[in-house]
Amino acid sequence: MTRPEKKDPATWPKCSFFAIYDGHGGSMCADFLKDHLHQIIITQPTFPEDPRASLMKGCEIAEERFLKIADQGARFDKSGSCAIIVLTVEKECYVANVGDSRAVLSADNGLKIFDLSQDHRPNEEAEFYRI
């Protein structure tokens, strides 16, 4: 990730961004996220001090921006995307997911498995009531 020009180089942490976008109904949304989501997240006023808030607000803003683009022109794009995001800031690791994407961590040569995310599936009780 490249530090945004407006951010102070003296306080910019070592950070990395990894994401997988599982597009559906076309590729426009997944392509938009691939090209823009990481920059939207790191340009939030809360980044790098509060990566969690930056991830949440960044995903919200990305959705708003994509919907505006998808609704332009003669053709309404109906694509969408699930996402699994891993953001490291210094020695901390933040994981976010949208939709039914999943992240797991393997340790001890695969003898230990840790869930790093929770699926957002309509048959899950909390997600059912949220919808």
Give a quick set of tags describing it.
two-stranded antiparallel ribbon; single chain; 131 residues; alpha+beta; 5 strands
Notes on the protein architecture:
- This protein has 131 residues and is of the alpha+beta class.
- It has helices at residues 28-42, 51-70, 125-130; strands at 15-24, 80-89, 92-98, 104-107, 112-115.
- The protein has a 3-stranded antiparallel beta sheet with strand order 1-2-3, covered by helices on one side. The protein has a two-stranded antiparallel sheet with strand order 4-5.
- Helix 1 (28-42) runs antiparallel to helix 2.
- It is globular and about 45 Å long.
- The N and C termini lie far apart (34 Å).
- 18% of the residues are buried.
Write the layout of secondary structure elements.
Blueprint: E1 15-24, H1 28-42, H2 51-70, E2 80-89, E3 92-98, E4 104-107, E5 112-115, H3 125-130
In the sheet with the most strands, the strands line up as 1-2-3
Q: How many strand elements?
A: 5
Question: How much helicity do the residues have?
Answer: 25-40%
Tally of helical segments: 3
The termini sit apart by: 34 Å
The computed structural class is alpha+beta
Q: How does the overall form come out from the CA principal axes? A: globular
Alpha carbon gyration radius = 16 Å
Strand content: 25-35%
Average pLDDT confidence is 90
Largest sheet: 3 strands, antiparallel
The run of helices and strands is EHHEEEEH
Q: Which blocks of ≥5 consecutive residues have pLDDT under 50?
A: none
